[in-house]
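During the reporting period, our protein records have gained a structure token line. A sample record is set out beneath this paragraph:
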Amino acid sequence: MPNENQSELRKIPSVEKVLSDPALAPAIERYSHPVVAATVRDVVDRIREHAAGGGKVPPFEAVVEMVSYHLAAEWPGLLEPVINATGIILHTNLGRAPLSPAAVEALSKLLGGYYALELDLATGERGVRAQSMEKLLEMATGAESALVVNNNAAAVLLVLSTLARGREVIVSRGELVQIGGGFRVPEVMAASGAILREVGTTNQTFIRDFEAAVSDQTAMLLAVHRSNFAIRGFSHDAALPELKDLARQFDLPLVYDLGSGAIADTAAFGMSHEPTVAEALAAGCDIVCVSGDKLLGGPQAGIILGKRAYIDRLRKNPLLRALRIDKYAAIALAATILQYLKGQAAELPVYRMMAETLESLARRGDDLVEKLAAVGFSAEVVDGESLAGGGSLPDETLPTRLVSVEVKGSIDDFCRRLRLGSPPVLGRVHEGRFVIDLRTVFPAQDEALAHAMGAAGKF
């Protein structure tokens, strides 16, 4: 046995031999030589350990395949677009809103060189970061002033830290929401140094509850839009106009965490109406905070809009330095807002997906069924529903047409192979079948989707 083991150990290829195999050249090009070399060493070490315990050394071709598999498992989707076949338009784990071609073009044009991010070209002196982008936001929403930070949680944190540190903020119990990633409004408030003053109950809060809580320790009234869940049945909320009147009575700012960030009317794209930034400002809110990568359809950003007197105070908070928007998001957001001002909101991917017709989806679905048949799958087009997702329009669905695919073998293994493929593919599983919603698949990806399905089905 010892001699046999020694014989097997001598069969183990060297790291250099494996690395020099032409089959790994594409992997080295994609991942880099150091990354592939580290994976080869790891695979060779595992084979050596296996052989030392009496196991057999796999053929050289199998060793190369093991390296490719481990690379895909360790670095899935590295710098590669994912095909989102889930039907969730604003998929939080896939980056929410896809950027529009106009925003991508602006990034491509400007990021290869220098950009006047914080320079006043008229005077040649240092200016306000991304000032033109903020001016565009003011024009698009009717706000007196705008300030943009890196996400909406940061926006709320900055507002609370500046205007309410050490003092009370009154908010309805029914609006103490938890947002993506486990962040909760009470925790953001605690981090800001503000003191939470809850009023009302989960389902019933009246303006009299806010009024009874006002004291000389009160710094602001806070309203939070329930953008990621809904309360139905026996419920009541204090309306924004009521809160505005109470805020004016006690000379307090009214801050609205609107979250989802709609500028356009979502009802025009087949969904129910979502409160817009302009409506919130018209209702009397002094500050409105929204996300850039939800219904606004732009990059991740926390957008603060409202009265100039308050936003000027936010600009002086040293915390802004840590929360400010980066140049990439500033460019993409400016390009996105320009599309609203040009009347091109319907060209944003979020709204194009919402507005795609059942006829178009059925036609694409029939074509995909044919492509899948050519690579060995049995599939059919069936009725289904798409979701807005991303903490927007809770309970809201859109009728859609799905491609339901019969999968041989383990559906979990098949989904894993799709996720680790090139490009990675995410879909849904329903009653043991793999389900594709083409609403969230770009038409240019249809061919790649069929190819990825075929590759995953070969195992």
Q: What stands out?
A: The longest strand covers residues 378-387. Residues 31 and 75 are 8 Å apart (CA to CA). The chain has 19 helices and 15 strands.
